[in-house]
Structure formats: structure tokens, C-alpha cells
Design a protein that fits this description.
alpha/beta, Rossmann fold, two-stranded antiparallel sheet, 9 strands
């Protein structure tokens, strides 16, 4: 579980009642005898009354989705200001009311060297000692892309699965709670942000996701995040629910940028809501999860400083990864 915990004393009602009774008896005896009495004995707390601390430090490790690539918005409360951006980590911090310390390790450069960059991100995450690590899109470029093990070119299903093992081996170094996303089908981004040669076959994607699920199931500290399923729901253009909130078909169309690869600001907000939902449903993590604002309208207003109807996306045409 979390690397650091804060132990709190929990006073039992019956213990307090007993102490109060002793104090009353001592007072009466003192008045009757006009002599100083021995103070009541100190309270001895029974063992096993400690409570784990809430998650206070969160690291996000991953690729351009975690980095908030292409997410920009303007603020009407700051006339003439440049477009602002955000990331998954920053959004989590804002959702927590600035209570959670975030270690923002998402990078849009992940695709250029998955093994090297993936290793460095895990190194930095471990050094930061987070209470929770989010690897929502960390494994994406360990399956997609064209750069394989030892910087060789990936050509076969076996090449992609071999690179995936490199990514999983890095995640295996993380001891604390870890949320791991599977690989979404982003083939619709071909011709925009992806080349056809970077996209694994459906068979390769299926085998990779089976391996990820198997890996997560074998590790007590790991939890599965169904990124592929979430993206599929968005792509269908149908209404769906996350954490008790309903996104209409019209809302769903706005959750992925026009490049068909990256989440929009509203898409990142949906990710935060999905993360909160998974943590809340977990028997071990529900008690210690941070309190997050996941109402999408209120959270959007916190991020942009304006009401949803007043916040406009910036005209931005991000360059290809």
C-alpha cells in the first residue's frame, strides 16, 4: 500500500467514559479528605486502531494523453492572455482543491524512445515516492509505434509483444498502488497523427491487452484501467455514464481532439472521473483515495476560471508526434 502513513489516535467512547468516572470519584474523594489524590492513569490505546492516510502524492507516468498534448483553452477573465494548457496531473491537483501533490511525468516524446523514456519516467516516479501512480497511457508506445527493443524496427506481432514486456518490467519496479491502462485502438488516427506502420494489427492489440490484464491480475498493488473500453464508448458516439454522470452523444464527440488521438479538456475530465470511479469501487483504495471534484461542469469551471459556456477552445493545430 502507500509508502507513508500517518497514525492517528482513535479514542474509544467506553474508555473516555471510564476516565470521566475515575476523575469524578477522585474529585469527590479529594473534597472529603482534603488531601491531594493521585491523578487517573493515562489512556492506553488498544492495538490495531491506526488508520491509513489518504493518498496525498500522485505520479502520472505516460505519453501525450497524460501530458495534455493539444489541450488549450482561453480565459475570458484574463483578456488578451495567451491560451492555457493542462495535463492529467494538473487536472487531478485542481480536482483535489490543490490538496494533492502531483508528479507530472507525462511526455509527448514517449513515441521517440519508449524503452529509454519509459525507464526514466519510472526512475523519477520511484524517486518521488508517490502514494499512487497512474500509468493510464504508459504502455501505449510499448505496443504502437515503430521503434522496438534496442531501438530496432518493429515489424511483427512478436516484436510488439517483446517491447510490451520491457514496459511491464519497468512498471514492476513500482511498489505502491498502481493504476495501469490497456492499449486502445487508435487506428482512426492514421493519416493524421499516426502512420499505418505504427499501428499494431487487431491480433497484436488483443494479445497485448490480454497480457496486460494477466500482468495486473498477478500483482496485488496493481489495478486495471479499461482505457480501450472507454475509447470505444467515445468512438461509438453514444451516451454513456461515468461515476453517476451521463455524457450525451453530443458530449462524447467532444472528448477527443480533431487529431483523433488525444483527449480534449473534457476528455481529460472524463478520465479523472473514471479514475475516481475505479478508486471508489476498490475495497482497499476507497478508504484512502483523495477527495476529487468530478462533476464535469464544476471541474471545468475550476480549470478555466470561467463557466463552461464562456470557455472557448483555442485555435491550435498541434504538430504530429
Amino acid at each position: 500500500m502507500a509508502a507513508s502513513t500517518i497514525h492517528r489516535l482513535i479514542h474509544r467512547p467506553l474508555t473516555l467514559l471510564a476516565v470521566a468516572s475515575l476523575a469524578s470519584i477522585a474529585s469527590i474523594t479529594s473534597i472529603a479528605s482534603s488531601q491531594t489524590t493521585t491523578p487517573p492513569p493515562p489512556i492506553v490505546e488498544p492495538e490495531g486502531t491506526t488508520s491509513p492516510a489518504r493518498i496525498a502524492r500522485v505520479a502520472t507516468i505516460g505519453a501525450s494523453a497524460s501530458a495534455g498534448y493539444g489541450v488549450y483553452f482561453t480565459r475570458q477573465d484574463e483578456p488578451g492572455s495567451s491560451p492555457s494548457g493542462t495535463s492529467l496531473a494538473k487536472l487531478l491537483r485542481i480536482a483535489s482543491g490543490e490538496e494533492v501533490v502531483v508528479i507530472d511525468l507525462g511526455t509527448a516524446a514517449f513515441f521517440s524512445n519508449p524503452s529509454g523514456i519509459g525507464t526514466r519516467l519510472v526512475n523519477r516516479a520511484i524517486k518521488a515516492k508517490p502514494d499512487l501512480t497512474l500509468a493510464i497511457d504508459y504502455l501505449f508506445w510499448f505496443t504502437f509505434g515503430s521503434i522496438g527493443v534496442d531501438s530496432t524496427r518493429m515489424r511483427t506481432v512478436e516484436d510488439r509483444l517483446a517491447l510490451l514486456e520491457v514496459g511491464l518490467a519497468q512498471l514492476d519496479r513500482i511498489d505502491g498502488p498502481l493504476l495501469v491502462g490497456d492499449v486502445p485502438d487508435m487506428s482512426s488516427a492514421v493519416g493524421r497523427m499516426l502512420r499505418q506502420s505504427q499501428v499494431p494489427s487487431q491480433e497484436a492489440q488483443r494479445l497485448a491487452n490480454e497480457r496486460i490484464r494477466e500482468w495486473v491480475a498477478a500483482r496485488p498493488n496493481a489495478r486495471f484501467f479499461p482505457l480501450r473500453g472507454l475509447i470505444e464508448r467515445l468512438r461509438k458516439g453514444e451516451a454513456f455514464d461515468i461515476g453517476g454522470q451521463t455524457w450525451s452523444a453530443s458530449d462524447a464527440k467532444k472528448l477527443i481532439l480533431s487529431d483523433r488521438l488525444h483527449p480534449s479538456l473534457d476528455g481529460l475530465i472524463a478520465l479523472v472521473a473514471a479514475i475516481d470511479e475505479i478508486l471508489a469501487a476498490d475495497a482497499l483504495l476507497a478508504e484512502i483515495k483523495p477527495d476529487l471534484e468530478v462533476d464535469r461542469r464544476r471541474l471545468r469551471e475550476r480549470v478555466t476560471g470561467t463557466k463552461p459556456s464562456e470557455s472557448k477552445p483555442a485555435d491550435e493545430s498541434p504538430e504530429s508526434e
